[in-house]
Amino acid sequence: MTAALRTEGVSKRWGDFNANRDISLSFAPGARHALIGPNGAGKTTFINLLTGVFPPSAGKVYLGDQDITRLPQHARVKRGMTRTFQINTLFPGLTVLESVVLAICERQGRGGVWHRTVAGEREAAAEARALLETLQLTAERSEQTRNLAYGKQRLLEIALALATKPAILLLDEPAAGIPSAESAELFAVIASLPRDVTVVFIEHDMDLVFRFAERITVLVGGQVLTEGAPAEIAADPRVREVYLGEAQHG
Fold it and tell me: How many CB atoms lie within 10 A of CB 247?
């Protein structure tokens, strides 16, 4: 089976500093794949290489069979790769429904229709309502985004990403700053997304990682330490050493 997304020997250097070194990873179609590691492990840099924020110093990135190593970010989005950030960027003055309708119109190349009413965009509004139902945001559809609880804002951020109809969804600490009860709810929604969406996520909360990831890659010092199913990672003494060492010195 062709990987949904893979890298071959990807590295990123700034002068003498190696942020990522020789990373070769493969993400299966429909995967729920976590990237974990201590602070400074190179996780966000790796996501930036996947999404085209930075060009790699060496190596290649493939989306399916396509070499996308030199494609700019917007071209990767058009090919089905969408990312959310640790800092969410929402439309504070729009309602939840209006925000998603706008994102759908943007995907369709009709971003200039934002000034029209939602009622005038029936197909986009129907798609937006279905998306909000998937993400358990139906009750909030008429709320202005600035008034949403933080956990709901993160869900809306994911809704906006899904409005681009991605094949690959990259999440950079989606639960950051969310109370634990809400973060479990957030990850339950992420885990239940359709299997035509491959989900790769960075997360520090190990409880969430082991509950929701089906495969885990551990990065340390910009390199892959190990990769495997959650049970394999939990039993690996090298992984425990990395995290215990961080706890003792943190």
Answer: 9
* pLDDT tens by residue, 10-54: 999 999 999 999 999 999 999 999 999 998 899 999 999 999 999
pTM for the model stands at 0.86
DSSP 217: E
Output the CA torsion sign for 142, 145, 211, 213: positive
Pairwise CA distance, residues 64 & 198, whole Å:
12
Question: Are the CB atoms for 63 and 79 separated by under 8 Å?
Answer: yes
In terms of Cα–Cα distance, which of 53, 146, 160, 26 is closest to 106? 160
Query: Which alpha helices (H) appear in 89-236, and where do they start and end?
Result: 96-107, 122-134, 150-162, 180-191, 206-212, 230-235
Beta strands in the chain (DSSP E): 5-14, 17-23, 26-27, 32-36, 58-63, 66-67, 81-84, 168-172, 198-202, 215-220, 223-228
Per the DSSP assignment, residues forming a β-bridge with 62 are 6, 67
Query: 176: which residues sit within 8 A by CB, 6+ positions away?
Result: 86, 204
- Residue 83: both structure tokens together: 């990312």
Contact present, 128 and 104 (Cβ < 8 Å): yes
**Of 214, 244, 246, 243, residue with least CA distance to 231:** 214
